[in-house]
Amino acid sequence: MQEKFCFKFLVLLALSSLPSIVLPWSHHNMQFNQGKNYEGSSDLVNLEYHMGPVLASPINLYVIWYGRWKTAHQATIRDFLLSLSPSSSSSSSSSSVSDWWQTITLYTDQTGSNITGRITLSGEFYDSTYSHGGSLTRLSMQSIIKNSIVSHPRSLPLDSRAGLYLILTSPDVRVQDFCRAVCGFHYFTFPSIVGATVPYAWVGHSRIQCPGMCAYPFAWPTYSGGPPSGLGGVAHNIMDPPNGDAGTDGMVSVIAHELAEVSSNPLVNAWYAGDDPTSPTEIADLCVGVYGSGAGGGYVGQVYKDHWGNGYNVNGIKGRRFLVQWVWDPVTRRCFGPNAMD
């Protein structure tokens, strides 16, 4: 599940420090170059359907901004969320955010219904007073959702039919297991706390606490001594963020990761690999660190670079560009994204 997200990431970083691993970023090509390897199809991955529901109905997404946020960072994340549905203006671009979501829509429930391709940003709640303090537990997230529902005058609805709640914590907020084991997680609410069972996800902004862990490849872990020479980027980074802030751009990819998994496994009884539903390997866990063809061993794969050398692999609304990890394709049985070279 989400603990495996960080564990696998640490393994990737460890591999990337080995002398035999070469990460040849090109300053002259619009893509990073490396032979293809890890993203190939595999029959060894035992991803199974466990008969639970998926989010097949159109999703009403409700965002809770917890803490103090910069307007520019909120705009970046909001534009990514608005880019998910094919009705967005980004759908006319090649390698769009909505194209990336199409892989998630390949997953079905026991009736044959696919995960929806329609995600609407239906409401936002600003919890700038830190209603539950600056240090949160996992269970705190459900109380934060409850607070957003009962607060007046601008409360969110309790949408038990089509609601998906996304809690985003600002850089100064500490969350249980954040940076140590997780960058984000998803689960479902308890009726005794919130009033109904609804799926939700939480993602933290890592700029202050652990950018090298949760904003990679836009930041390099400080304990590693910095990236190998010749990779480009600025000090302690191996790739510049397309929207100007490593913590926010890294957060976008973690949000994508959690949205993919909560949609395909909302009650933790649908799509996952492994025998333990309390610690499942889900459709994004299988592709941690893979952003393009040829990814593996700490190398993110072949991605695009803009005029300033910022890395990205999908296009969004308003000319936005984002770098989001790939997810497991159940048809081709491989990690896949719209910028795939084959």
Q: What does the secondary structure layout of this molecule look like, with pairings?
A:
Elements lengths: L1 H15 L30 E3 L9 E8 L4 H12 L14 H8 L14 E9 L7 E2 L3 H11 L12 E7 L4 E2 L8 E5 L2 H4 L4 E6 L6 H4 L31 H19 L6 E3 L30 E2 L5 E2 L1 E2 L5 E2 L4 E3 L4 E3 L6
Parallel strand pairs: 2-3, 2-5, 4-6, 5-8
Antiparallel strand pairs: 1-9, 7-8, 10-11, 12-13, 14-15
In a nutshell, what does this entry contain?
The protein is an alpha/beta fold. It has helices at residues 2-16, 71-82, 97-104, 140-150, 191-194, 211-214, 246-264; strands at 47-49, 59-66, 119-127, 135-136, 163-169, 174-175, 184-188, 199-204, 271-273, 304-305, 311-312, 314-315, 321-322, 327-329, 334-336. It has a 5-stranded mixed sheet with strand order 3-2-5-8-7, with helices on both faces. It has a two-stranded antiparallel sheet with strand order 1-9. A two-stranded parallel sheet has the order 4-6.
Question: Can you tell me about this structure?
Answer:
- With 342 residues, the chain is α/β, with parallel strands linked by helices.
- The chain contains seven helices and 15 strands.
- Strands 3-2-5-8-7 form a five-stranded mixed sheet, with helices on both faces. Strands 1-9 form a two-stranded antiparallel sheet. Strands 4-6 form a two-stranded parallel ribbon.
- Strand 14 and strand 15 form a beta hairpin.
- The radius of gyration is 19 Å and the shape is globular.
Total strands: 15
Q: Point out poorly predicted stretches.
A: 7-41, 229-236
> What is the makeup of the main sheet?
5 strands, mixed
Radius of gyration: 19 Å
Spatial strand order of the main sheet: 3-2-5-8-7
Percent strand equals: 15-25%
Enumerate how many helices there are, as a single number.
7
What fraction, in percent, of the residue positions are helical? 10-25%
Which overall shape is indicated by the principal axes computed on the Cα atoms?
globular
Q: Give the SSE string.
A: HEEHHEEHEEEHEHHEEEEEEE
Terminal CA distance reads: 29 Å
Secondary-structure class: alpha/beta
Mean pLDDT: 85
